[in-house]
Structures are given as C-alpha cells and as structure tokens.
Design a protein that fits this description.
- The complex is a heterodimer of chains A (240) and B (306).
- With 240 residues, chain A is mainly α.
- Chain A has one domain.
- Chain A is built from ten helices and no strands.
- The longest helix of chain A is centred in the middle third of the chain and has 35 residues.
- The model of chain A has no long low-confidence stretch (mean pLDDT 88).
- Chain B has 306 residues and is of the alpha/beta class.
- Chain B has two domains: 182 residues, Rossmann fold; 62 residues, Alpha-Beta Plaits, CATH 3.30.70.3400.
- Chain B is 37% helix and 28% strand.
- In chain B, the strands form three sheets. A six-stranded mixed beta sheet of chain B has the order 5-6-7-3-8-9, sandwiched between helices.
- The radius of gyration of chain B is 23 Å and the shape is globular.
- The interface between A and B is medium-sized, with 27 and 34 residues.
- The complex binds adenosine-5'-triphosphate (ATP) and magnesium ion.
- The site of adenosine-5'-triphosphate has 11 residues of chain B, from β2 and α1.
C-alpha cells in the first residue's frame, strides 16, 4: 500500500487547492497571532492551546474544503477508475484515501495549533510547567481531529459532490454547535453530550470539568462507526 | 481457438426501474478486436463499467483472464487499460504528472516509461502542459497513453473516437491496429461508427436492450454480406450498357453521370477493367466496398424489433 500512499501524496503536493488551504491556515495563524499581540491581556501558550483545541470544530470549514477536492473531485473527475485499472481493490483505494486525508488534515491542524501556541509562548510564556498531561491533551486533540475527519469522509462519500459536501458539512457542524448551546441553556436533548462535537469543545475544560473516559469512548466509537459506514458505501458506489 | 480472456454469463444489471443488462452473455478471445455495437441505451457502457470494476452487476458472473473470484478480478484489472466514455485524468496536473500517478500506483520503477508512453501518442512536446488546457484530441490521446500504460493485455474502449478529427481517427485506428498486430493486445471497443469499426474489428457482438443478440466473426459477416464495386468513369451510361452486355451476371446501378456500382460481383476486378478499357472508356477509379456491417446490423435489429 506504500506505493498508493506515495501516489496520493504526489497528487496532494501538486494540488493547487491544497496549497491554498495551507495559505489560508497561515493567514488565520497570523491573524490570531496579531490579535494575541494586540490584546491587552495576552494569553499564555497553554491557554492558547486549550482555546485552539476547544475551537477545533471551526477547523471543519478547512476540512470540508479539503474533503471536497480530495474525495469529491475524484468521484466527479471519474479518477477512481484510474486506480481500479492499476489492479487496486476498492478497499485499498478507500483505505489509502482515508489515511492520506487524515494525515493531510492533521498536518494542517498541527501547523496551525503548533504555530499559534509557539507565538503565544514567545509573547507571554507557556504559563504551565511541562508535564505528560500536555502530551495527553495534544493526543486528545489529534483524536478529535481524526473523528472530525472521519465524519468529513463519510459526508463526502455519501454526497460525492464538492459544493454540496462543503455546504452540508458546515451545516452539520453548526447545527451540532447550536444543539449544544440549546442543551446548555434548556437541558433539552442531553444526548448531545455524546456527540464528537460536544466532546471536542470540552477539551477547553481540560483538567477541570473534563472526563477523559467519555471523550475517548465517544471519539473511538465515532471513528469506527463512521469509517466502516463510509467504507461500506464506497465499496458499493457506482463509479462513473 | 485462442484463450477466452473476458466472459460474461447471465449478467444482469438493474437500475431502479431500468434493466440495463438482461441475462447477458459474451466471450472475447485473446487477440480479438471485438467490436461492440448497439443503439443508444442498449447497455454497452454499463457492461464495460462492470468489466472494469466501476460498477457491480446485480447478478451473474464475469471472468477476466480465467479468474472470477472478487479479489482475483481486482488484480486482473491491472492487465486491462480502459477509456469509458471520455478519458479521466487530473485536469490541474500536467500530462507527465498524470502518468506519474499511474506509475506510482502500479509500482513501476524508472521514469523512462512515462516519456515512452507520451512519445507513442505524439504528446512529448506538451508533456509539461496542464491537461485542462489540452484540446479534445490531445485529451483523447493522453487517455490512450494512460490506458496503455504498463503493458496492458486488454484495452476496453467505449466510443474512443468521439470528438477526434478525421486525421485523429485515422491515427487512432493505426495505433490500435499496431497494438493488436504487433503487440498482441486484445481490444474490446464499442462504437457507433460502423465503417470505422469494420476496418479493424475481427469479430462483433450486437447488443440490444441489454441482451446479446449475436456474436459473429468479421469473416462470417463478410461471407454473409455483399460486396460491391464503385467505378468512376467519363460516361457512366455508356459504361453500364457495355458491362451489362459483356457481363450479364452482374447487376449494374448508375449512381451519377460519372459513377456506377456493380453488385453481385465476385471479386474479379481485372475482367471488368479490361472490358471497359477495350470499349474505350476512361476508368478514373475502381474500388471494392462492403458496408456489410451496417446492413447486417440494421437487418438484425429489424428482425428483433419486428
Ligand atoms: N446510473 C444510472 N442510473 C440509472 N440508469 C442508468 C444509469 N446508467 C445507465 N442507465 C440506463 O441503463 C441503460 C443502458 O445505458 P448505457 O449507458 O449502458 O447505454 P449505451 O449502450 O452505452 O448507450 P450509448 O450508445 O448512448 O452510450 C440506459 O437505459 C440508461 O438510461
Ligand atoms: Mg455508452
């Protein structure tokens, strides 16, 4: 499968939209850094990390755009047929796509979070002694990003059209966020607590009001269920 | 008889309300140029998509290179190059990079094969141009280069000459002939251009409403259908009178003042030529035609629809 991953990376690095996404990431990075710098009470590196993890869901916009050209364009450009004609099974095509997509998404996420934290640390110090806890927090962030990415793959595999994927994806994300606010205000629909979106936002309360067990269970279940469903749909999809 | 490399048995494909394929059977032997002919909506593309793994049959069995197990089929598809409807590629990448993706996926070492492939279809000059800026013919040729990439044993082509200019069509035909004759590549080609198809096909399959109506070799078809001679002369009327008198077994048809057709003709052109020249008629052109495929196909379809 190494050769397939190489081919995916080759496509990704040649891809114009991916470069644009990296640029967008850099632009939002500079904005965040500038805000931090201008703000009277600048946040420390640790606080910035917590905030950027808590706001991970807003990274969905970039993620869905990524899914749109990385997955949907292969459906509409009929290029999956190219891979099939290389003697590659659908399962392998799907697994390679998932692996590369998640790796690309993590790359975008890590350069963003890493750089924001770095800038804040230089300006205001890290604000906390280094401990294994911070590594665990970052790993949870990565797991959250993987869960988000899996949902993106599912939406793109079902919808197959770039514009609809982005629209629907962002719609779903903000509905989940609204659902959460609604629950916190009214207490109606408590099951929202067990959605990946709710749990990702909980990262902001790391070390306070945060249950690691619930977080891990929700993320693992989301990833497994969503990816198996997406794989099932891809196996049976009509490829043009 | 050569080995059967593609076979379909009782193949059925349902879309919600439509039966695109209906207990379909077919066999392609190694070395064949198999012409696949049928009306719009007959099910040609559906079959080719199932063979190349883009779609799955509702029921029935396909075999590629003697293998029918699902995992084996996936592997065997690595021996099949295809263009279905229009060639597919990454438009934002150059021709070279598109082939590089294939090379990486196929795990072929060395990049020499890429320039070889581009040279074969005459695209080496534009190898660094983005594919979205290609003309239709260039795209078609790149499609062929990609379909051929990696020593394919079978080419599956769905209406490959759509959009090609006359020169392109001739060039395409020459490449296919060369591939078939020199490299032994088997070709399964669907086309509505029957005249074009009859110049390369060694056998035909006629599909109608998702069913295989008939499989026939080019030789059998030739025997079953009539050839005729087209002659261009300075005076068609006079030439016709002379031929009718001298060779009453042939049926002569005057087409224009300077053109006539000779039917029921046995292939003996020398005698006709001699007769005309002896009678002082200037023969400008003399050529044998056989639109057997077209007539045969139309007759087959007529029989079915009646
Ligand atoms: N994805 C699909 N969903 C529903 N029906 C389909 C689909 N693809 C094909 N069909 C139907 O299946 C039948 C066969 O279509 P197919 O494309 O195989 O025909 P064809 O022989 O290739 O025709 P043409 O010569 O026009 O290309 C048609 O009736 C078509 O409408
Ligand atoms: Mg078709």
């Amino acid at each position: 499968m190494i050769n397939l991953i190489k081919a995916e990376w080759f496509k990704l690095l040649k891809s114009f939209p991916f470069r644009i996404l990296c640029l967008c990431n850099a632009a939002s990075l500079i904005t965040t850094a500038a805000l931090n710098f201008l703000g009277s009470k600048g946040s420390t590196g640790y606080e910035t990390l917590l905030i950027s993890l808590g706001y991970l869901l807003h990274h969905s916009i970039i993620g869905y755009i990524f899914a749109a050209f990385f997955l949907c364009d292969e459906f509409s450009g009929r290029t999956f047929g190219m891979s099939l004609s290389c003697g590659v099974s659908r399962r392998k095509i799907f697994n390679t796509k998932v692996f590369t997509f998640l790796a690309g998404l993590l790359f975008l996420f890590l350069i963003y979070t890493g750089a924001v934290m770095f800038v804040a640390t230089i300006l205001n110090g890290f604000g906390k002694g280094f401990s294994i806890d911070i590594i665990l927090l970052l790993l949870c962030g990565i797991l959250g990003e993987i869960a988000m990415g899996s949902v993106m793959i599912l939406v793109a595999t079902i919808v197959k059209k770039a514009v609809i994927t982005v629209g629907l994806g962002i719609g779903i994300t903000y509905c989940l966020l609204l659902g959460k606010t609604h629950y916190l205000q009214t207490g109606i629909f408590p099951y929202i607590k067990y959605t990946y979106s709710f749990q990702i936002e909980q990262l902001m309360f790391w070390g306070e009001n945060f249950s690691l067990g619930t977080f891990l269970a929700v993320m693992f279940l989301t990833v497994v269920i969503v990816l198996i469903t997406a794989g099932f749909i891809f196996e049976r999809a009509e490829l043009k | 008889m050569a080995e059967i490399i593609v076979s379909a048995e009782n193949l059925t494909k349902h879309y919600r309300k439509i039966n695109a394929l209906n207990n379909f059977h077919m066999e392609v032997h190694r070395g064949d140029v198999y012409g696949f002919v049928g009306k719009n909506g007959a099910g040609k593309t559906t079959l080719l998509r199932i063979l190349t793994g883009r779609s799955r049959q509702t029921s029935g069995k396909i075999e590629l290179f003697g293998k029918s197990d699902r995992n084996d089929l996936d592997i065997q598809r690595g021996r099949i190059g295809s263009i279905i409807e229009t060639p597919a590629f990454y438009p934002g990448m150059t021709a070279k990079d598109n082939l590089e993706v294939l090379r990486l996926q196929m795990d072929i070492s060395g990049k020499g094969c890429i320039s070889d492939a581009l040279k074969m279809v005459g695209l080496e000059e534009v190898s660094s141009k983005k594919v979205k800026d290609f003309s239709l013919g260039m795209k078609q040729r790149l499609g062929l280069a990609m379909a051929l990439f990696g020593n394919r044993e079978l080419l599956v082509l769905d209406e490959p000459v759509n959009g090609l200019d006359p020169e392109g069509i001739v060039g395409f035909r020459e490449i296919l002939k060369k591939l078939n004759v020199e490299f032994g590549v088997t070709i399964l080609i669907s086309s509505h251009f029957l005249g074009e198809l009859s110049q390369i096909a060694t056998c035909y399959g006629f599909i109608h409403a998702g069913k295989m109506m008939e499989e026939i070799s080019a030789k059998e078809l030739q025997e079953k259908s009539e050839s005729y001679l087209v002659i261009r002369v300075d005076n068609a009327k006079k030439a016709a009178a002379i031929l009718e008198k001298a060779l009453p077994e042939y049926r002569i048809e005057i087409i224009t003042e300077m053109k006539l057709h000779v039917h029921n003709f046995s292939g003996e052109t020398g005698l006709i030529m001699k007769t005309l020249i002896n009678a002082d008629i200037t023969v400008k052109e003399l050529k044998a035609y056989n639109d057997g495929l077209e007539n045969y196909y139309m007759a087959t379809i007529k029989k079915i629809t009646n």
